[in-house]
Design a protein that fits this description.
This protein has 249 residues and is an alpha/beta fold. It has a single domain, classed as HUPs (Rossmann fold), CATH 3.40.50. The strands form 3 sheets. A 9-stranded mixed sheet has the order 11-10-9-12-8-1-6-7-13, with helices on both faces. Strands 2-5 form a two-stranded antiparallel ribbon. Strands 3-4 form a two-stranded antiparallel sheet. A hairpin with a 2-residue loop joins strand 9 and strand 10. Pfam families: ETF.
């Protein structure tokens, strides 16, 4: 079984994003970029399935700027077998991403697509669900455990009330949550090997997808700074302050 893993290049989660002076977006100049953490978990899970003998090949896919090759090389260094980069220098919205991925799914015919539940730059949480709808495949979202058995995959997913387990018929779409696994570090020998692994380059036009944005960003602002708190002497003073703030009646 082939496993397809879409990955996204985002600002490193340890970096505090800065808004451009004109408020047109987030400043990416001289900012450290890395793989979306949820996608890193997806790559790890795909590699573990291959190590168990369930999967035969792991293919990493990214849609974005040419520098996204670095993100794909990271996936290859972790253990993916080959990679596909769909080059587009502008922003690509979730629906366009899902349409491109559908084209790749139709071409590659993977038994399982594993991707992060969301990207930490826009937090859309849409691509996996849209891909499932476009391909007509069953989906298991927010996975904290994935088990493949025969022609089925059991996905334990995190819901508000606790955990829910669903059984999907393969081929299927799975989106990963943080508790699914702990991604491995790429070793130096594997980093060197990744440089020689196949990395194909495509364009959205190769899949007949129009990536023209349908949304316009009006303005981007930083969240308001946290206001310092005050100490109160007793409960009565606390209640009085809450009433003055309109929080308590």
């Amino acid at each position: 079984m082939k496993v397809l893993v879409p990955v996204k290049r985002v600002i490193d989660y340890n970096v505090k994003p800065r808004v451009k002076m004109d408020g047109s977006g987030v400043d990416l100049a001289n900012v450290k970029m890395s793989m979306n953490p949820f996608d890193e978990i997806a790559v790890e899970e795909a590699i573990r399935l291959r190590e168990k003998g369930v999967a035969t090949e792991v293919v990493a896919v990214s849609i974005g700027v040419a520098k996204a090759q670095e993100t794909l090389r990271t996936a290859l260094a972790m253990g993916a077998d080959r990679a596909i980069l769909v080059v587009n220098e502008g922003d690509v919205e979730p629906l366009a991403v899902a349409k491109i991925l559908k084209g790749i799914v139709d071409e590659e015919r993977p038994g399982l697509v594993i991707l992060g539940k969301q990207a930490i730059d826009d937090d859309s949480n849409q691509t996996g669900q849209m891909l499932a709808a476009l391909t007509g495949r069953p989906q298991g979202t927010f996975a904290s455990k994935v088990e493949v058995s025969g022609e089925q995959v059991s996905v334990t997913r995190e819901v508000d009330g606790g955990l829910e387990t669903v059984t999907l018929a393969l081929p299927a779409i799975v989106t990963t949550d943080l508790r699914l696994n702990e991604p491995r570090y790429a070793s130096l020998p594997n980093i060197m090997k990744a440089k020689s692994k196949p990395l194909a380059q495509k364009t959205p036009a190769d899949y007949g997808v129009d990536v023209t944005p349908r949304l316009t960003t009006v303005t981007v602002v930083e969240p308001p700074k946290r206001v310092a708190g005050v100490k109160v002497a007793d409960v009565d003073e606390l209640v009085a302050k809450l009433k003055n703030m309109g929080v308590a009646a």
